[in-house]
Amino acid sequence: MMALSKDCSRFGTAVNQPSVKLDRTMVEDKRLTIEEAARELGVDSFTVFSLIQRGRVNPDRASSGEITVPASELAKLMEKGG
In Å, how far are 14, 47, 77 from 68, measured between CA atoms? Predict the structure, then answer.
């Protein structure tokens, strides 16, 4: 399993201890809201929107129109080092 780093200064934001460890094989189909993704990364939702706008995270859109983030995208982000 891959643990999210405590030091995510590469995002330009101080972060808290992540709540879980992400394993890409377990998260391939899981979709997170912006708020859930922010919680997993230990950042605020504005940082997640910024990562999306900069093309570092590829979001999906739920049938309800809500923006979601595949958990696998967060795992890839952490593997790349942000």
Answer: 23, 14, 15
Rounded to whole angstroms, the Cα distance separating 32 from 10 reads 22
Give start and end residues of each alpha helix (H) in 2-82.
Answer: 24-27, 34-41, 45-53, 71-80
The side-by-side arrangement of strands in the sheet containing 31-33 is 31-33, 67-70, 60-61
Mean model confidence pLDDT for the chain: 76
Among 17-21, 29-33, 43-47, name the most confident range. 43-47
